Amino acid sequence: MAGSRVEHPFGPLFGPESRILILGSFPSVKSREQQFFYGHPQNRFWKVIAGVYGREVPTTIPQKKELIMDCGLALWDSIASCVVTGSSDASIRDVKANDLRIILDHCPIERIYCNGRKSHEMYEKYILPVLGREAGCLPSTSPANAQWSLERLIGAWSVLRETAEGTGRQE
Description:
Elements: E1 4-7, E2 20-24, H1 29-34, H2 45-53, H3 61-70, E3 73-77, E4 79-84, E5 93-97, H4 101-104, E6 111-115, H5 117-131, E7 136-138, H6 150-157, H7 159-166
Parallel strand pairs: 2-3, 2-6, 6-7
Antiparallel strand pairs: 1-4, 4-5
């Protein structure tokens, strides 16, 4: 089997107002190069978040951080390290999970969502038994998830806004 062991190269993004945690699986090659989440230009994550919250699509890392903080979100990944070939979720093996307590102990996370099936699968296998907190699974924003249009993704991901409104947080 090809692939090499890779450590997650950057930490989580969260703040004191973060109420919803979004977990990817593991950073893509582009994200690892940029040292920030969803760095591949074809990944629709930033367009989806901007669409859900009625904001401009951020283009710089500071703008992306501001969007996440303004919307009461937190970002990280389910996997701390793994053997992976390139950016392929399908190649991921020998997983070590992230310890989400670094986030959960410091902000009032009310709901956890996984960006795609691989993140959710890793969450269910490695994190749920430790934390005992369920996580929802949202359709992946990856370009590999071609059957989901941007409009469909925004519709499905609108649960983030509904969750925030259900907690009394107004965007």
